[in-house]
Amino acid sequence: MKQAFLGMAFLVAMTQGTTNAQKLKYPQTAKGDVVDTYFGVQVKEPYRWLENDTAANTSAWVKAENKVTQDYLSTIPFREQLRARLKTVYNYPKYGSPFKKGGYYYFYKNNGLQNQSVLYRQKSLTAEAEVVLDPNKFSKDGTVALHDVAFSKDGRYLSYAIARSGSDWNEIFVIDMNTRKLLADHIMWSKSSQIQWQGNGFYYSAFDAPEAGKEYSVKNEYQKLYFHTVGQDQSEDQLVYEDKQHALRECYASVVGKEKYLVVMVTETTTGNGLLIKDLSKADAGYVELAPGFDNDYNVVDEVNGKLYVLTNWKAPKGRLMVVDPAQPARENWKEVLPESKDVLENVSIIGGKVIAEYMKDATNHVYAFDLTGKKLYEVQLPTLGSVTGLSGESDDAEAFFMFTSYTFPPTVFKLNTDKNLAEVLFKSEVAFDPASYLSEQIFYTSKDGTRVPMTLTYKKGLKRNGKNPLMLYGYGGFNISLNPSFAAGRIPFLENGGIYVVANLRGGGEYGEEWHMAGTKMKKQNVFDDFIAAAEYLIKNKYTCKEKLAIDGGSNGGLLVGACMTQRPDLYAVAIPEVGVLDMLRYHLFTIGWSWTSDYGNSGESKEMFEYLKGYSPLHNIREGVKYPATMVMTGDHDDRVVPAHSFKFAATLQDKNAGEKPTLIRIDSKAGHGAGKPISKIIDAQTDMWAFVMWNLGMKPVF
Q1: Which member of 556, 604, 618, 648 is catalytic?
Q2: Are the beta carbons of 392 and 400 closer than 8 angstroms?
Q3: What digits encode the pLDDT tens for the residues 444-462?
Q4: Which of 99, 162, 262, 680 could be a cystine partner for 142, CB 3.0 to 4.6 Å?
Q5: 246 labelled catalytic
Q6: Closest Cα partner for 34 from 61, 5, 10, 74?
Q7: How far, in Å, CA of 611 to CA of 43, rounded?
């Protein structure tokens, strides 16, 4: 491989013609002569220099591209009215599901347009709530977010992790709740970590400090597990677990059984893990293997009466609950509590001496209670078909809380009495939106290979299937992640103006268990794209929409989905929105935590067959000269250290260079923003305004707000 010297990285051309009817002039991005060789095959990559996200020429390119994008968006006549409507629909109190610690109820609340939600506490559910932690005071622009909080068992200490500018890097701090003072404790370079207390300290995972200037792009290796004692410097923290032989493994701690056991979860990728256990009551105890890695998933739910309850897909692709005696941890001694069923067992909690199990059937949740032996007691009655999140409660307390939502049911927090099977509304969302005027329906369609795939359509009642409706098709299809029904205020203006919002539950996700997931991975990844393309074709054939009115959207792995589908079938869509997408499938694993995705993708270095398969669908490498592509707005953040922005940079530059059509090809690069988590409301509204303005304008809509 060789890298040519790039002096003047690009020549900025003046934009002329800023409507969707005229071809835009883009920055003329300089081309280098980098050539990679894979198994004897040469692959040119002229925009390799854009991977250097901190270089001056990259920064100048970002500035020039953003100017073209904002100049274009500023000409959309309804953009500011759309922004005003979005502010209105986002401006409602948003509550999190409460949890108990140290004799208090804790919960999150956002008054409406606060950039970050605030942590409150109250002595009883009717007492006046007081502010515990207000992340809006962390920074003036709201770009420092609260990532996680954890309490010591006695409630005296509160540790919290923050993330700056959307980065996955976390910093951990400690508050003494007796004095409400911030202590001197400060932990750096934690990532993807859980804070787990034991006594007067806590466990956390961290990497070594990265090289200065490469914090957001360097490959993350050799994660370690530490124990921090309150009051000491991070340099004094005790190293409790590391693996010097395997650079590309991660480790996470959980403390169970009234702080009796330390459980260490070890992972190589996003699929499968091993479990190690250590008896903390014995000073000289070592780690004992509870479950081997990395063919199955294991999660220790809780400890009851000296036994560990473990949720696993070992010999059960849709999940089952097992009980383990730590004194006899070998898997042949494990006993089944909840066997595998026809529906996916997603989550389990031990609350009030009962097993509260969340199942998923056709991408919607159902909640059941069982006794500790697995005998079914009852089903919790939910308002409609939708999603349950944030289920919380104590193993010896019958009081529980959960949040319920669907595409037309705004998030609502319920209090559940697990003894009486009584669910009552605790916090209700009052959105400037009439759910009764809209309909969500789930339908099933047939993919290319005959697989039956579900998707859910949401639209205003009275819709006519005349083939002329604007439609947004959204998907993900990866990493065992399920797209369950969810409410999003940002969709409201599109729905109000006759749009149809569709979510397809593609293979690669977890909607039907591990087999459904694996059917969309590695050499079967094309199934995911085929499922999405088949959804679009079904919607057109059945006159919900037409090619000229069809937009597609997806983020992260969903950005890969959009990039692959728009390059494979550019004729099928009018608009494409690849957000923070994995778009370079030959090099994704070389940045930050990308190596952990190989269980879903494979990687270009493992075999010639895998290289050829990845190159065959890699969005960056399948943009063709002379093809007319849909109106496209690539979206990313300059601090995205999960899917580095280089993916989006190189894809946008290539598309601008090769696209033969006159539809706009833009890239929107958000500043002080990352992969999405912790983004302040102000930035969310700005991004939603620009995305929906671009979509509506290029679908020929004339919205009224």
Answers
A1: 556
A2: yes
A3: 999 999 999 999 999 999 9
A4: 680
A5: no
A6: 5
A7: 11
